[in-house]
């Protein structure tokens, strides 16, 4: 097994801010008044102590705990998650998902239930309408080979407003048994909706314990969601529930203070953002309407883990068949120019999505970086993502109906930055250099800029 240097891991997991000074690969806070000078142990004294049996055992225990925690963190520290329904044929689309740089799937629900009938709820069987257990096993095996973990959506009553049948206590016991069952089948985690309800039941500690085991459930994640909560309420749920990833609706982009407040007390990987889903509909059908590329750019460049619904990458609207996204490359013959134009537009949206995913996957500033607000209004937003000495990224967007001029000011900003992705190629061409003193954006436009670390 290849040895892993701890300083390499530390760079990936620790957030570096201006209040923290960097010494090599270790984050060190430098006090203003050092006080009494501490000389530490000599080399001979240190070697003598570290060779004792007690210290060797302590080091091993600490390393084991560190690696276990790192494995759990890496499970949810992915470029993005994609909600996807399970049906026969999904396995054949894994290559497509790999090309789109999907690093995690939230699959399902797959269980059988009748509307408002708690006694028919069977969380450990696969409903015949979506496939068989053999189909599911084959999908899990192939996804594992491609490095795509699959999380099971265990929403109990998924076609009604009350997901817990108005009896969360009874459902929680079934959830506990289902978690054990499906993790043994090879799922990489479990997703639960409306977390505020189930986390207060007496079954919740037992559910958490299933995911805290170190052998049977290694590298599995417990995920949940909440809706319509304030920043303080989201923080409270995240702290009390102990989930690895808490998915919530994205706050109003104009309220940059909300995002900053959430990330001031939590690891970025602990929070997931979504603008689509079971109750919100598709990304392309949101109200108020804005070009889907603006939503894609916002989710991919904010801190945290972006979560999309299948079809968001090509701009599917509510009611359109998901099969469309698989058939873009080999479509049936278009009967008119309108259909051809629509297909070309969807391919362009998909290419934009993939370009964002590629950047997020390889740029540390986008994956781990500090969030710095530069501009905020009711219809426009600009912010920086900074990480150590890595390339800096600046997101600017205008979802309003009028042009906007942004006066950007920050000690880290250079005079110009390079255009990396844009929705306004006529005025902000890719790879061109633009002035940051007064950045101009047209209506319904967005741009992603970058510039190098300058010391």
Automatic annotation (TrEMBL):
SUPFAM superfamilies: (Trans)glycosidases, Glycosyl hydrolase domain. GO terms for cellular component: apical plasma membrane; basolateral plasma membrane. Keywords: Membrane, Transmembrane, Transmembrane helix. The keyword DNA-binding does not apply. SMART domains: Aamy. GO terms for biological process: carbohydrate metabolic process; L-alanine import across plasma membrane; L-leucine import across plasma membrane; phenylalanine transport. One of its GO terms (molecular function) is L-alanine transmembrane transporter activity. This is Zgc:158423. It comes from Sinocyclocheilus rhinocerous.
């Amino acid at each position: 097994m290849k040895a892993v240097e701890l300083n390499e891991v530390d760079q990936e997991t620790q957030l570096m801010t201006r209040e923290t000074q960097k010494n090599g690969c270790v984050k060190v806070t430098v006090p203003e008044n050092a006080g009494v000078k501490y000389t530490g142990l000599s080399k001979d004294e240190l070697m003598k102590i570290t060779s004792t049996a007690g210290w060797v055992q302590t080091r091993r225990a600490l390393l084991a705990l560190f690696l276990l925690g790192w494995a759990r963190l890496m499970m949810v520290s992915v470029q993005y998650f994609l909600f996807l329904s399970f049906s026969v044929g999904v396995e054949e689309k894994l290559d497509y998902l790999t090309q789109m740089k999907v690093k995690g799937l939230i699959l399902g629900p797959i269980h059988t239930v009748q509307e408002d009938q708690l006694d028919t709820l069977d969380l450990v069987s696969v409903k015949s309408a979506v496939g068989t257990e053999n189909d599911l096993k084959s999908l899990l095996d192939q996804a594992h080979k491609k490095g795509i973990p699959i999380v099971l959506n265990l929403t109990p009553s998924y076609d009604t407003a009350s997901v817990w049948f108005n009896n969360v206590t009874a459902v929680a016991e079934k959830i506990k048994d289902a978690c054990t069952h499906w993790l043994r089948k090879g799922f990489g985690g479990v997703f639960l909706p409306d977390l505020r309800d189930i986390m207060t039941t007496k079954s919740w500690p037992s559910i958490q314990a299933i995911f805290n085991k170190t052998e049977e459930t290694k590298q599995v994640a417990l995920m949940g969601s909440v809706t319509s909560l304030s920043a303080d309420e989201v923080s409270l749920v995240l702290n009390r529930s102990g989930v690895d990833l808490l998915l919530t609706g994205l706050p109003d982009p104009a309220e940059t203070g909300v995002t900053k407040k959430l990330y001031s007390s939590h690891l970025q990987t602990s929070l997931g953002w979504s603008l689509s889903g079971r109750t919100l509909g598709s990304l392309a059908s949101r109200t108020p309407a804005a070009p889907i590329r603006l939503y894609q750019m916002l989710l991919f460049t904010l801190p945290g883990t972006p979560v999309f619904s299948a079809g968001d990458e090509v701009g599917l609207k509510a009611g359109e068949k998901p099969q469309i996204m698989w058939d873009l490359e080999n479509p049936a013959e278009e009967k008119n120019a309108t259909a051809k134009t629509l297909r070309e537009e969807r391919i362009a949206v998909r290419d934009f999505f993939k370009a964002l995913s590629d950047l997020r996957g390889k740029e540390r500033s986008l994956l781990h970086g500090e969030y710095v607000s530069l501009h905020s209004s009711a219809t426009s937003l600009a912010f920086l993502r900074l990480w150590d000495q890595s390339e800096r990224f600046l997101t600017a967007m205008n979802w309003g109906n009028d042009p906007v001029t942004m006066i950007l000011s920050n000690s880290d900003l250079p005079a110009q930055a390079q255009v990396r992705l844009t929705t306004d190629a006529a005025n902000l061409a890719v790879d061109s250099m633009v002035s940051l003193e007064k950045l101009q954006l047209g209506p319904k436009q967005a741009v992603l800029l970058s510039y190098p670390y300058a010391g």
